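Repro:
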Amino acid sequence: MPGAVNVPRGVLEFKVGEHPALKDPNAEILVYCRTGGRAALACVALQRMGFGKLTSLAGGFEGWVSKGQPVQKSPEAC
């Protein structure tokens, strides 16, 4: 998704503070994964870490793509 920051769920608690976009616990954050399950778990973890403005994308990335929403490939994924 355009502007996305990739933080794998398995390392979320360790990596979240390393990215400048994730330093503000008051920032609005859209959390997503492939189908939605891991994103919901990530939101719980982020809430416990003090983040309060979280949204879990229903249907995940697959749902996003199936609705024809924009997708941007990151340079390192090429």
